[in-house]
Design brief:
alpha/beta, Glutaredoxin, 2 domains, 5-stranded mixed beta sheet, 4-stranded mixed beta sheet, 11 strands, globular, disordered N terminus
Length: about 250
């Protein structure tokens, strides 16, 4: 149990999905051009790239690469909700994050993805009902411990869309479902969408109303069986309260 609690604390730390891809690019001694950098990360020419140094100041690509070659450097990645702009910032362990250069998320970013069954899942198709999205990944211990209460929670609320979104590939996500019995609709390979929602900690919940407006986010997960028993009641208080507030605001 002690090892499980320790692992739980680890996934609560900020997680930037692209950081693991960005840092190794600078490990080689060969000169790196911005075009090559884009290609290695899979960003096309239509995506606007911006860069910041350790002081959170805007710099050109050369200044960013110089900062990334310093010992202990890594990149924080911010992505605009429409996915058309990306800002990469040089950071070191223990440094506070720079403010995001983009406005806060206020609505569900548009997406067109596939669930584990191969069926299309689109932001447009979710409209008409509130939507609760759980962001998780396969080796996240707090994610695993909340699966059973999340299943029970969703089964009692057919009036809500429930999605579980992960950056894991389909095979990995399917193995997770098979092993732990997660019964939400699972959307794998969703790194781009996750970046645009700006998920930095796991598991995370995001609640949207029937029109796709963001009502709130909260940290999910459980560190042990005792916390897992409280997942459903706490989630109900949070979600049902936000939906009531939203309904009351719409009635005015």
């Amino acid at each position: 149990m002690r090892a499980m609690k320790s692992a739980a604390r680890m996934v609560m730390l900020p997680v930037v999905l692209l950081a693991a891809l960005v840092t190794p690019v600078f490990a080689a001694d060969a000169p790196l051009t911005e075009d090559v950098f884009r290609q290695r990360l899979g960003f096309g020419a239509t995506v606007h790239m911006a860069y910041r140094d350790l002081a959170c100041n805007a710099v050109k690509f050369d200044g960013f690469t110089a900062g990334m070659k310093e010992p202990g450097a890594h990149a924080d990645v911010d992505r605009s909700p429409d996915g058309k702009q990306i800002t990469m910032t040089v950071r070191k362990r223990g440094m506070p994050a720079c403010p995001s250069p983009y406005p806060p998320i206020t609505e569900l970013p548009p997406f067109d993805l596939r669930d584990l069954g191969g069926k299309r899942v689109t932001s447009a198709a979710l409209r008409g009902k509130p939507t609760l999205i759980n962001f998780f990944f396969s080796t996240c211990v707090p994610c695993i411990l909340e699966v059973k209460p999340l299943n029970q929670f969703a089964a009692q609320r057919p009036q809500v869309n429930f999605l579980a979104v992960t950056f894991d590939e389909a095979d990995v996500a399917r193995a997770f479902v098979d092993r732990f019995g997660f019964r939400w609709r699972i959307v794998p390979d969703a790194r781009d969408f996750i970046d645009r929602v700006r998920v930095k900690n796991y598991p995370m919940m995001a609640l949207f109303d029937a029109q796709g407006r963001l009502l709130g986010t909260r940290q999910g997960g459980a560190r042990d069986e005792l916390e897992a028993a409280n997942v459903g009641p706490q989630l109900a208080l949070w979600m049902d309260g936000l939906l009531r507030q939203n309904k009351a605001a719409g009635a005015k």
